[in-house]
Amino acid sequence: MTRNANANTKNTKETKPLFLAAKISFFVIFVSFVFVFVAAQTPPRRIISLVPNVTEILFAIGAGPQLVAVSTYDVEPPEVRSLPTVGALVDPDTEKIISLRPDLVITYGSQTDLQEQLKRASIPFFDYRHGGLDHIMVTMRALGARTGHADQAETAARGLQASIDAVKARVAGKTRPRTLLVFGREPGSLRNIYASAGRGFLHDMLVVAGGEDVLNDIDKESAQINTETILTRKPDVILELNAANQLNDADLKAVVDPWMTLSSVPAVRNKRVIVLNGPGLTVPGPRVIDGIEKMAKALHP
Amino acid sequence: MSIRRRIATVVAAFTVFAIAVMIWAPTVGSTPISLMRAFDRSIPWDDNVDAQIFFVARLPRVLAGGLVGATLAAAGVVLQALLRNPLATPFTLGVSAGASLGAMLAVTMRLELSVLGVTSIPLASFAGSLIATAIVYALASSQRRGLSTNVLLLAGVTLNAFFSALILFVQYLADFAEALRAIRWMMGGLDVASYVPIVAALPFIVISLVAFAMMSRTLNLLSVGTEAAAARGVNIVGAQRLAFVSASLATGAAVSLGGPIGFIGIIVPHLVRLMVGSDHRIVLPASALFGAAFLVLCDLAARTLMSPLEIPVGVVTALIGGPFFLWLLVKRS
Predict the structure, then answer these.
(1) Do A223 and B189 touch (CB under 8 A)?
(2) Residues A278, A211: one domain?
(3) Among all residues of chain B, which has the CA nearest to that of A254?
(4) Contact with chain B for residue A262, Cβ under 8 A
(5) Domain match, A181 and A295 both
(6) CA distance A234 to chain B (A)
(7) Does A191 share its domain with A220?
């Protein structure tokens, strides 16, 4: 009882300063809300990208100069080569990332540990995951809105879409060769062949370029297939992606030769095992159009 | 029944089983083929899809599976006797880790050499297995005269762990796609699509299997104990050396052909012992034959169950072998 009475007297005594404190704290909260709101509206000026193809997209929409660091695998465009690196998909250097005081970090969907740490450090991040071909345009627009380059992003996305549509129009009506799109195998043999299957941007690129994917029915981005599958599916064309910039004749022969074992496959018999060169062929960014053009040229010479 | 008759009967039974499996396996697969067409010489090779499926896609796999299965199972028997340890496998003494490190390096360094048609990854893995064998051998024979099986075991297990750490390190430094390729190699695969790697591995495997066959009687004595064997006039050191070197050589060749396919080297010998007893004169050939049939069947599952996708054969042997072996353990005790 007495304690309660005491507390009451104290309360009445301190009413005035308490009221003041409440006013101040309301003001502080209001200001910080305004600040947060404004901050959310100001485009990030210190972006770190851990995903190389998103780095390319950022440059394509004009947000490149806002980058302060990239992943260890980033090489394109050349401007990124002078930027500091902060690890990559499986080994992001969280300490370095935080020490660079970024106001936006581009993370890959599987980097959940990093995302937790960024949340704890109150650093905003953009969660990216590979998708189909359309996803490149979607990502362009989303990043445009996020980095204050909505208009440039819109232009870039429309430009890319227009180039894609142009290829589509060019191959429309032509017979679509049944194609196997190979992007990895043991050198010098036909072991452990990895091919693009019925989903993902490589599959979409092949379809845009006027090919019919022989692994259409496999609902995966990539599939490891054996020689029996290739013999049964009988592709008309085998497109093999090779990361090398250029292959001389001897190297090219070494790459193509192992396929000759499967001489009943139409692609092999008709000499339509075609090696596509270029490090950018498997990067779902603005350079996809080069890959699509190369595929279209190979499929419809 | 005399022991000779018993050996002959049991080995004949296992031979019939293994041959039956090896003949049946290439006739089945994800796509039905016409054997009539496959063996019809009047159809040009380039037009004969059935023949190419049979002779390019299936037969090399079956032969490779038979060879690798027989080698790993027999090497398992030899090492279990040599180390007098039922848990020993062909991979206990570091051979597979050495081979894996070699393959890993070949993948990450993008080696593209080939010797007589044998490509870089099998070459590098075989070299790795030889290096691992040499290190373990040198360590085990350095302490005193002869070969210490204790040091052999400890050195092998340690080297396994050390090489595995190196593999992880190289993998960590490697490019994403390369790391994936190397990991895939470690799951084992028999889709060789060519007879060249089989022919290349064959001499090493045949020499080792002949060595195994010659020492079955010695292994009986060694598995009881070295003193007992010495009392019976066995040249212990010579026998141990021969057992270790031939088993390692055979394992290295098998791993370079099909990757480090696990479980064959441990479950097949134990299963065979359950069926025919522990006399190495029977266990050794029976394990080799049963190992061949077992791996060919596992590979059949690997290439058909999820077709057109391929299941790594090492995953199949582990999925079948693991639970089966545990059931066996519980049932025995």
Answers:
(1) no
(2) yes
(3) B112
(4) yes
(5) yes
(6) 9
(7) yes
Structural domain of B328: 3-332
Domain range enclosing A111: 47-165
For residue A268, give the CATH number of its domain: 3.40.50.1980
**Among A183, A213, A190, A167, which Cα is nearest to A276's?**
A183
Residue in A with minimal Cα distance to B103: A186
Domains contained in chain B, number: 1
Q: Does residue A113 fall inside a structural domain? A: yes
pTM here is 0.82
> Nearest-CA distance from B49 to chain A in Å?
6
Q: How far is CA A144 from CA A38, A59, A154, A156, A157, in A?
A: 18, 11, 8, 10, 10
Contact B112 A228 (CB under 8 A): no
The verdict on residue A277 lying in a domain is yes
Contacts of A73 by beta carbon, 8 Å cutoff, 6+ apart: A52, A88, A89, B175, B176
Residue A224 to residue B114, Cβ atoms within 8 A: no
The SS3 assignment for A204 reads helix
Cα distance from A24 to chain B (closest Cα, Å)?
A: 54
Measured distance CA(B184)–CA(B177) in Å, rounded: 11
pLDDT single digits (tens) A104-154: 888 898 888 888 888 888 888 888 988 888 889 999 989 888 888 888 888
Cross-chain Cβ contact A184/B177 below 8 Å: yes
The domain boundary, picked from A138, A165, A192, lies at A165
Per DSSP, B86 falls in state: T
Select from B120, B175, B303 the Cβ nearest to the Cβ of A226: B303
Looking at the structure of chain A, the number of domains it has is 2
Can you give the CATH number for the domain in which B246 is found? 1.10.3470.10
Mean pLDDT within B168-179: 82
Listed residue (B206, B226, B207) closest to B218, CA to CA: B226
Among A91, A187, A231, the residue with its CB nearest the CB of B112 is: A187
The answer, yes or no, to whether ipTM is higher than 0.85 is: no
Q: Which of B191, B198, B315 to substitute to test the interface with A, most A CBs within 10 Å?
A: B191
A10 assigned to some structural domain: no
Query: pLDDT band for position B95 (50/70/90)?
Result: confident
- Tell me which H or E stretch contains A59: helix A52-60
Q: Identify the CA nearest to B251 among candidates B82, B108, B117.
A: B82
CB nearest to B184's CB, from A192, A225, A231: A192
Q: Same domain for A244 and A180?
A: yes
Spatial CA neighbour of A53 closest among A285, A280, A243, A281: A285
Q: What is the pLDDT of residues B219-264, one digit of tens each?
A: 888 777 777 777 777 787 788 888 888 998 999 999 988 989 988 9
Q: Do B181 and A184 count as a contact with CB atoms less than 8 A apart?
A: yes
Q: Report chain A residues whose CB lies below 8 A from the CB of B173.
A: none
Residue pLDDT, tens place only, A26-83: 777 766 665 555 555 678 888 899 888 999 999 988 888 888 888 888 888 888 888 8
> What is the predicted pLDDT for the residue at B202?
92
Which of A165, A183, A215 marks a domain boundary?
A165
Taking contacts as CB-CB distances below 8 angstroms, the residues of chain A near B46 are 263-264, 269
Chain A interface disruption, residue of B30, B45, B125, B310, most A CBs within 10 A: B310
Residues A148 and A204 in one domain: no
